[in-house]
Amino acid sequence: MRTKFVSLCCLCVIFSFIVDVTKGGVVLTSRRNAKKLSVSQSQDAFKFVIFGDRTGGNAGGLEVLKKAVSETNSLDPDFVFTIGDLIQGYCTTPVWMRQMKEFRSIMDNLEMPWFPVAGNHDIYWNGPGKPAGGHRGNFEKYFGPVWYAYKHKDCTFIALFTDEGDPITGAQGFDRPEKQVMSDTQKNWLKNILQKAKDDKHVFVFMHHPRWEKGRYGDDWGNVHEILKSAGNVSAVFAGHHHTLKYAGLRDSIAYYKLGTTGGNISDINRQNGAVDHIATVTVRGDRFKLSVIPVGKIIDPIQQQFTHDSLLAKNWYFKSPKQRTFEYKVNVEKTSGTDQWLTVGIGHGADDSGDNGMHYRLINAKGKTIDTRFLWHDGIDRFEYKINESGEYTIKLYDKDTEFKGKYPGNGGTILIQKKTKQPTN
Predict the structure, then answer these.
(1) Domains in the chain: boundaries
(2) What DSSP string runs through 351-420?
(3) CATH number of 45-295
(4) Which pLDDT tens digit goes with each residue over 122-157?
(5) Same CATH fold assignment for domains 45-295 and 306-423
(6) For 306-423, CATH number?
(7) Does residue 285 contact residue 45 with C-beta atoms inside 8 Å?
(8) What is the pTM of this model?
């Protein structure tokens, strides 16, 4: 009888624990009389990322894209969407194919699925032999459909095509309203998808051109918006094209966002106003979502930041007299093939109290070329880092050029530490 009672008590404890989990998180502690901690609610949450425009002549755009891909892998979202202008385009098929392969070779390093949206750079054709629809056929063959829907965790994600062209002439462009009209075919498809998604918690829409801004886009978006409004569960619309980040507000409970660039060109005026390459992260939690924008280059994965440091030189130095105005140090650097390595130079010093109050620093590479020169004037530590591309002897020079050599601190003095930093491979 006692055994049955103990078993029943254990069962009650287990049952109580399970009920708590369904309400939210559980705090376990052996401490008594402590403040009760709040717990998270148990909800089916997930996260996705959006990349902005990648075009516009930025020579380093592909490097920015590579960085964005690496950092997105660190964030580990469920998937990634783009908002178009993946390649420079405006070309014939051979150039388009090269650019497509270049873009895909970077994006395919994402560790999660990614979904393309077609922009004008991806579709428009310049040159002889233009087929109907420009590069639409190439896009659908090598990237995916120009309009489609994706279902994920009680949500639907819709990619729309905003470069169908003039419905009468087929002429493409975003310079006149008649070229920015959504076809009845695409509108009817959209209505059908929204009907199938009527019980979803959220519907998110992606497209390249922010047609809600009217002007050269005309008024056709009003018709599309009414379709989205009628669905009742469209939460947000995302677009790009203008390389500027802007929240356009709520319209009938639908949030409109225009995203900036992820490797695309940023004009000088926009950069002065704070524009940066970025990725957007969207967290969906129950009946709500939140969007955050993260500049590319600001996410740190500690696994990707593992380095070894090999000391090459460590010395104290001091300019003791007017006759001794220069120190010169030489270090041999062996470049290890297949690794990323840097030469790091740390100079700790105190500024003197005569003349120019500082000293000059110069680094000369193995070929005798000066690759850095600076004036060090403050009391503290300066650290410099240089990518190592080849083996050889590097020379570091320190100069005190003061015309006077007097006072309480007549000459600079300090320490110098030179190291080779090597990034460790990740498994």
Answers:
(1) 45-295, 306-423
(2) --SSTTSSEEEEEE-TTS-EEEEEEE-SSEEEEEEEE--S-EEEEEEEE---S---SSS-S-EEEEEEEE
(3) 3.60.21.10
(4) 999 999 999 999 999 999 999 999 999 999 999 999
(5) no
(6) 2.60.120.380
(7) yes
(8) 0.72
